[in-house]
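Collaborator request, handled under Task 6.
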Amino acid sequence: MSGAWIVVTVVGAATIASKAAGPVLVGRRQLPARLQACVDLLAPVMLVALVVTQTFAGGEEIQVDARVFGVGAAFIAIALRAPVIVAMAVAALVTALVRLAV
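Structure tokens returned to the collaborator:
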């Protein structure tokens, strides 16, 4: 088994363990409001971190290219209350058009 598959297996097992730990440790009790607010923000923050990393990553330096315009267009579409699938299509279209133009 390669190193990559070992990492995937370990991360998968850790994910399953962390998801199982919540109901086991908390049970039917409600989390305090401040803690629940933090938990509610975890998924969006992780998604934003992934998008930013994938948009600006370029080896060891920050890279600004057509992807930045696509993400910006998607942000504007979401701000205008477009459905997520429309925002994704807008991002792909804008990215493709910028790549064609450059």
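The cover message to the collaborator said: "Strands lie at 57-58, 61-62. The first helix runs from residue 3 to 26. Please let us know whether this matches your experimental observations."
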